[in-house]
Amino acid sequence: MRDPDELFELLTDDIKAHSPVLVHALTGFLDAGQAGRLAVAHLLSTLDYRVVAAFDLDDLYDYRARRPRMTFLTDHFAAVELPTLELVEVTDAAGVPFLLLHGAEPDHAWQRLTRAVGALVERFGVRLTIGMHAIPWPAPHTRPVDVTAHATDSALVSGHVPWVGSLEVPGHLAGMLELHLGDTGHEAMGFAAHVPHYLVGAEYPAASLALLSHVADASGLSLPVDDLADAADQALHEISAQIAQNPENAGAVEALEAQYDAVTTSRELQGAAEGSDEAESGAMPSASELPTGDEIAAQVERFLADMDSREE
Fold it and tell me: What is the residue extent of each domain of the chain?
């Protein structure tokens, strides 16, 4: 069996960060609305960074299943967009360095790859690893983007009220990495942004904004988001204008709004102290009107299974 260290080339062992945070976002399965890709692109375009380690995707990537895009000009091939997977050191807006693992989710050698990343976590003394993901969700674009938080230690997500109980989802590298880090005594957590299921194939910067905001809160990093906020506002305006042109689509969004508002009310009550008199009972939806956690989980499972079957 090959050594996990052979999967990557370490370009420098001299990083500025001491006990850094490691943020990871991989394109592919858990990147609805391209939220992770957009978040990473925003960070690398606004902050200084340098490559620390590069993974050899020839051993990890299935080129025939996900063929790279090539440019053909009249009578010759001019370029090819090859996939990459890199660990970079980024300096945040306050001058604090952190690590960022980004690129394509590999197709092969997941167990060796998680051990390889675990070795890098130990090498650089990473104190906390945070994943950024995005999943389809039965929510409208007219409401704030929520997230599902998860961690190796429940104390890391103590301020987040769960959206669902148990559910089964297709396996993914980010989840396996979190499991591996937890099993080896490292703190790891992640945020999955809820992308309206009808927008999973489009760029949805509002989800990217939500991810970076939660990562900043959890890590203490100073991550600039002004430009991303402007892009999110513009995208939401365009989405609303397009949907308004079709009464059927507008009606579907209104139905999602009603469901979202009912579920949000239920979660607020769950998170509030029992017996609070801040909300009038007459204004509350009945239990029969509220989707249960199992019903939401079933919807999410169907969305993820559909994404898995259509990924290629």
Answer: 4-235
Distance CA 235, CA 258 (A): 22
What digits encode the pLDDT tens for the residues 27-58?
A: 988 899 999 999 999 999 999 999 999 999 99
Cβ atoms of 26 and 104 closer than 8 Å: yes
How far is 197 from 219, CA to CA, in rounded Å?
A: 29
pTM of the entire predicted model:
0.87
The CATH homologous superfamily of the domain defined by 4-235: PAC-like subunit (3.40.50.10900)
